[in-house]
Amino acid sequence: MFNFLSLVFRYLFILVIYLFIFGIIHLIYQDIKSMSGVMDNYPYLKLINRKDSLPFKVKEVYTLDSTVTIGRKKENDIVIKDPYISNYHLKITLDEENFFIEDLDSINGTYVNGDRIIDVVKLENGDRIKFGQVEFLYVSNV
């Protein structure tokens, strides 16, 4: 009787392990599937920082529309509650199939590839955009 129960528990334990592994693989697949749809069609900003190292919520990826404003106020298209980001910090605009970034007179400034921007700057694929405590990678599939 003991051998039979031991055998049943062994197989149940193995089944639970396989279900756990399947669940993890399914979550990874769903995450990759949701990300690929975003990345295939539109230019986007990809967070370079580690999310868990930041004391506020921020997404990994933000798709870019024709005009996107970023800041702390809820009226912005992308709201980031970083205390080092101004209420209306920067604007990214599409003009003639190119995206341009403009600092909106923020106190701490906006940096593209390590250089503080003063005027409107054209974004190129792979540019690093830093403002406040966050840094994003600009990715364009065009």
Automatic annotation (TrEMBL):
<keyword id="KW-0472">Membrane</keyword>
<feature type="domain" description="FHA">
    <location>
        <begin position="68"/>
        <end position="117"/>
    </location>
</feature>
<dbReference type="InterPro" id="IPR050923">
    <property type="entry name" value="Cell_Proc_Reg/RNA_Proc"/>
</dbReference>
<keyword id="KW-0812">Transmembrane</keyword>
<protein>
    <submittedName>
        <fullName>FHA domain-containing protein</fullName>
    </submittedName>
</protein>
<dbReference type="InterPro" id="IPR000253">
    <property type="entry name" value="FHA_dom"/>
</dbReference>
<dbReference type="InterPro" id="IPR008984">
    <property type="entry name" value="SMAD_FHA_dom_sf"/>
</dbReference>
<feature type="transmembrane region" description="Helical">
    <location>
        <begin position="12"/>
        <end position="29"/>
    </location>
</feature>
<dbReference type="Pfam" id="PF00498">
    <property type="entry name" value="FHA"/>
</dbReference>
<keyword id="KW-1133">Transmembrane helix</keyword>
